[in-house]
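R.M. (postdoc): so does anyone remember the format we settled on? I'll just put the structure tokens first.
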């Protein structure tokens, strides 16, 4: 079982969150696709969603596990 990094997920959320990359990294494919659609439909404003999630991941207050329920390392 591969452990995912909290730091990697948070940074992906901050820098590429509008494209849902952090969600794909953690295995949440469906929500990652939804984030892409929201970002496109809002002409980029939806990327704030990913930015906020990235910050919250690094703070440890949300998304503390991957899709399999394995806690994030770090």
């Amino acid at each position: 079982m591969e452990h995912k990094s909290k730091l990697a997920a948070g940074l992906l959320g901050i820098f590429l969150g509008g494209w849902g990359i952090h969600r794909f990294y953690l295995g949440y494919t469906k929500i990652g696709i939804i984030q892409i659609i929201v970002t496109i439909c809002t002409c980029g404003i939806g990327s704030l969603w990913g930015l906020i999630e990235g910050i919250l991941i690094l703070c440890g207050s949300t998304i503390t596990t991957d899709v399999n329920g394995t806690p994030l390392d770090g």
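R.M.: ...and that's the designed sequence above, right after the tokens. Also worth knowing: The first helix runs from residue 6 to 16. Residues 1 and 11 are 22 Å apart (CA to CA).
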